[in-house]
């Protein structure tokens, strides 16, 4: 890449929209390029001072659930050419893990998460903003499958959390940020035409003088 500043791509959408699939598709298509990925989920707050019941009661679909200041700080460090120690999150413990992942600077930085466009300072760091737009029913089914199969949750707990927090938070905090998107991508990873266009644009940027 001839540009000195990395290209920052933000991929957002509701839980289960397919934003992680889209991010991974872009990442895989540009294999061989200098790229890193930052999941916003890694930046959930450290809740070591809370007992398990209090952790479970947290609204994880609200902006306050994230350590956005740390995400902004580390993203700025990567932009500035510094290596970071990215946090990790343990879903079984509802808490940040003690382990970190070393992330070196790269030409392309993909940031993906449900609330990337909500914070103006974070939003302004994103060069390309992609909103993955998927029907509510599809998102709920995907969330159910993920949380039961990968995170050990019960069906009842997933339904209760979706109705109590995930659905209302989506309509309050996530869907309204669609207006900030440069690209609205319906159907997520299944939208091959849209992803082809994103890939082509990134290759133009990477090969720019």
UniProtKB/TrEMBL annotation:
GO terms for biological process, alphabetical: CTP salvage; UMP salvage
Q: What class of enzyme is it?
A: transferase
Q: What is its EC number?
A: 2.7.1.48
Keyword Cytoplasm assigned to the entry: answer is: yes
Pathway named in the protein's UniProt entry: Pyrimidine metabolism; UMP biosynthesis via salvage pathway; UMP from uridine: step 1/1; Pyrimidine metabolism; CTP biosynthesis via salvage pathway; CTP from cytidine: step 1/3
Q: What is its main location?
A: cytoplasm
Q: Which reaction does it catalyse?
A: uridine + ATP = UMP + ADP + H(+); cytidine + ATP = CMP + ADP + H(+)
What InterPro entries does its record include?
A: P-loop_NTPase, PRK/URK, Uridine_kinase, Uridine_kinase-like
Which GO terms fall under molecular function for this chain's record?
Answer: ATP binding; uridine kinase activity
Family statement drawn from the similarity comment of this UniProt entry: Belongs to the uridine kinase family.
Show the HAMAP family listed in the entry: Uridine_kinase
> This chain belongs to which protein, by name?
Uridine kinase
